[in-house]
Automatic annotation (TrEMBL):
Gene Ontology CC entries for this record: chromatin; nucleus
Enzyme Commission identifier(s): 2.3.1.48
PROSITE patterns xref list: MYST_HAT
Any single GO BP term: regulation of transcription by RNA polymerase II
Molecular function terms, GO-annotated: chromatin binding; histone acetyltransferase activity; transcription coregulator activity
Highest taxon of source: Eukaryota
Organism: Tilletia laevis
Name this protein carries in UniProt: histone acetyltransferase
Ranges of residues in domain MYST-type HAT: 9-126
Length: 126
C-alpha cells in the first residue's frame, strides 16, 4: 500500500513544545517552517508565540521581546484571568503563530496563514 504525498506530509513533525515552564507533547502535524520540523522540542515565547529551535535562542529573544500580554484589546478581566480580542488583520504575525501552535492539537484546523478575516480570543492568567 502506498501513501499519497498529502498523507506523508501530514505525519506529526514535532514531538514536544516548551512554553514557559510547561513542556507538552504535540498531537498532530503543524506546518511550521521545514527548518523547525523534526526537532525534538520547539521552544515558544509565551508573549509573542514566536518559535525557536533551542532554549538558548529563546532566551536571547526574550531579552528583546517587548510584549507583556497578547496584542489587541483586553475585553474581560476577573482576578488573575484576562481575555484579549485580537484582530487577525492588525496582528498577522501573532495570529499566524497562534494558528500554528493550535494546529499541534487540532487535527482538522485548515487556516494557518490567511488570518485577516478572523478575530481571535486568548485567555491569559497573570
Amino acid at each position: 500500500m502506498t501513501q499519497s504525498v498529502s498523507e506523508i506530509s501530514r505525519v506529526k513533525n514535532l514531538n514536544k513544545i516548551q512554553m514557559g515552564e510547561f513542556e507538552v507533547e504535540t498531537w498532530y502535524f503543524s506546518p511550521y517552517p521545514i527548518e523547525y520540523s523534526y526537532i525534538d522540542t520547539l521552544y515558544i515565547c509565551e508573549m509573542c508565540l514566536g518559535y525557536f529551535p533551542s532554549a538558548f535562542v529563546l532566551r536571547r529573544h526574550r531579552v528583546k521581546c517587548t510584549l507583556v500580554h497578547p496584542p489587541g484589546n483586553e475585553i474581560y478581566r476577573h482576578e488573575d484571568i484576562s481575555f484579549f480580542e485580537i484582530d487577525g488583520r492588525r496582528q498577522k504575525t501573532y495570529c499566524r503563530n497562534l494558528s500554528l501552535l493550535s494546529k499541534c492539537f487540532l487535527d482538522h484546523k485548515t487556516v494557518y496563514f490567511d488570518v485577516d478575516p478572523f478575530l481571535y480570543y486568548v485567555m491569559t492568567r497573570r
